[in-house]
Amino acid sequence: MSADLHPAPLTLDGSCVLHQMFRFDWPAWRALEAGDRQRMVAEAQAFLGPLEAGAAEGHPNQSAVFAQLGHKGDLLLMHLRDSMEELARLERDLAKLELSDYLEPSESYVSVVELGLYESSAKTYAQLAMEGIEPHTEVWNQRVAEVVARQAEAMGVRLFPRIPEGKYLCFYPMDRRRGEEVNWYTQSMAERQRMMHDHGMIGRRYADSVKQIISGSIGFDDWEWGVDLFADDPKVFKKLIYEMRFDEASALYAEFGPFYIAVKLPSQELGQWLSLEGGTR
């Protein structure tokens, strides 16, 4: 019996993630009285401040605001919560703010923090196959569930992370190619494990300067994964992603969506960002 009979690697799921991208209606904002603008900023700051701090107990469940660069939008909000229901409630509460009347959605992305378990999967499937245990039988499911539970307990901080402190954010969605000749999903477990190991080794060299959150979005959005990179120097995004383009997992099997680059915008600085004084914002 081959360990490759079950091709899907085990994964661990953590925080539900929502990215919201907005364009800001500057002409309508300029037409408001100064007092109205100040009131709306104060309401938004009072709403966003506690969300940035996150929960005092349990999972962090934070939100963060970023000022986008380029034409794709003006603001990017990132939210991590324990459930999709909580994200839906947060999205609704945000829409109730007066300031939301001046936010035009330009894009969004829904996903779940995901950790792949290629190495554990290969070992587990091989052991079960050696014991003659057929995939998806009661015993097989129980043994797999035990592995997932142990790994989830050990990786709790990574599954339910705080939003890293980096000043800059680079977010992009991606797929694995499923073409007629080049198809990630037809490669053996061993081959995919090898390529992901090599891919991960590149990322580890940048661990001191770049923090990442990888989320899975199959069945949730138009791409298969979302990648969030955080750093204090945005140029490191270019170096890291460029170097990764040369590894086999990216060069042959990766398709990339649009890239979003943004600067962290703490809620206490929102008033300055929205200020019309001095002709800048």
UniProtKB/TrEMBL annotation:
The keyword Oxidoreductase applies. Pfam families: Chlor_dismutase. Coiled coil: none annotated. Keywords: Heme, Iron, Metal-binding, Oxidoreductase, Peroxidase. InterPro entries: ChdC/CLD, Dimeric_a/b-barrel. Signal peptide: none annotated. This is Heme-dependent peroxidase. It comes from Acidobacterium capsulatum.
